[in-house]
Amino acid sequence: MSSACLSGDGLLASALFASAKHVLGEIKYPAVTKMFTQKSIGSTFTLHIECGSFRASESIVLLGQNGCSKTTFMNILAGNFTDDDSKSSVLGGKDIKEVSLSDVGVSYEKQVYAPELRKFEGTVADLFEQKFQNKCADHLFKRLVLKPLELEDLDNLDAKILPGGELQRVAIALYLGKSAKVYLLDEPSAGLDCEHRVIAAKVIRRWILTHLQNTCFVIEHDLGMASAFADRVVVYDRTPGKECYARSANDLSYGFNSFLMQLSITLRRDPINWRPRLNKSGS
Questions:
Q1: pLDDT tens digits, one per residue of 137-148
Q2: Which pTM value belongs to this model?
Q3: CA angle (251, 52, 5) in 5-degree steps
């Protein structure tokens, strides 16, 4: 494949399929433009995704203000975007549904997962048995995922009555239990306390990047968690709700500084625990 980024009629999916079978090496995707028309209020929004790439054993974090369509980017990658009330356009006039990684193998943890899990009639153990029977007998999965997330203690509890934090940990395990080349996480820290946020970040990186040597894309609004996840950063800019650009992934330092400049915020690292802390304006 050419080292130049694809554009025009090239589709995200076509660029990826050619390289998806390679465990190592760089996988490129082309520039894509997605336009929404919301008929109910007569407004439009345009998302421009710059050409970029990702590699095995790499975590890419999407950073942007609310309304930048970070979740839309995830849905485009997952191939499950539906929009009955709008017209979708992509460079080359193709339907947005053709821009998909579904043939590559995607595991997608959506931001809204609770309603589906709360419909399940049975215990957490029953849920895991139904969703991924082979993983329940996997010694490494138990040691690297289930045990540190403290999910074995929940085996006999009804899944549908779990509080938000425990249900989020169950959702993370279900997500990691799927076989995929690319893993997509939309706010994996939501509902978790500080201790479990750190544990979840370690578990996710260790399982996907170190053990499986695959790739993950993460949307995260907790900057501490985002810095813990990220190897590189996709920064969104321009005007939320009107027109935004998802820039090509950059290194962690440049990406965070670019995002913080948009917000007129500076951070410092705590000298003891290295957590990011906000600086006083003008300091």
A1: 789 999 999 999
A2: 0.81
A3: 135
